[in-house]
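Thread amino acids onto this structure.
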């Protein structure tokens, strides 16, 4: 059994004043908003793009760290703890240990997730809806 079973979502930071336009773009490409939370400069949306999602975060700045950018990649897994442990064993840095939480307000979803930092300093999330 593969620990990683495809991408769940890619998260992007976008300028707060471009948030609605960014959401509209992904919806125009066929995306469906499946979850939303936060307000104003702390807004976020999860947009299903047909099996994988784009997660948008309003950054609260005009330039969103100069441009919209990659925030983290998320790998779907049936066993977050095993994936987290395997990443640490391979040399990744621990960032956030596995935890259960409820994500979202529009469609509250119980999840388990964890984060590690990869060798390119990228943030990698392991994610399971439970």
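Threaded sequence (130 positions):
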């Amino acid at each position: 059994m593969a620990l990683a079973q495809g991408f769940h979502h890619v998260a992007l930071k976008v300028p707060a004043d471009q948030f609605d336009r960014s959401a509209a773009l992904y919806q125009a490409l066929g995306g469906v908003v499946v979850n939303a939370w936060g307000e104003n400069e702390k807004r976020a949306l999860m947009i299903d793009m047909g099996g994988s999602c784009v997660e948008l975060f309003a950054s609260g700045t005009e330039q969103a760290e100069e441009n919209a950018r990659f925030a983290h990649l998320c790998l779907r897994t049936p066993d977050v703890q095993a994936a987290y442990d395997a990443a640490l064993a391979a040399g990744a840095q621990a960032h956030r240990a596995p935890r259960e939480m409820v994500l979202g307000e529009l469609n509250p979803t119980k999840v388990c997730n964890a984060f590690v930092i990869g060798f390119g300093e990228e943030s990698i999330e392991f994610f399971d809806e439970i």
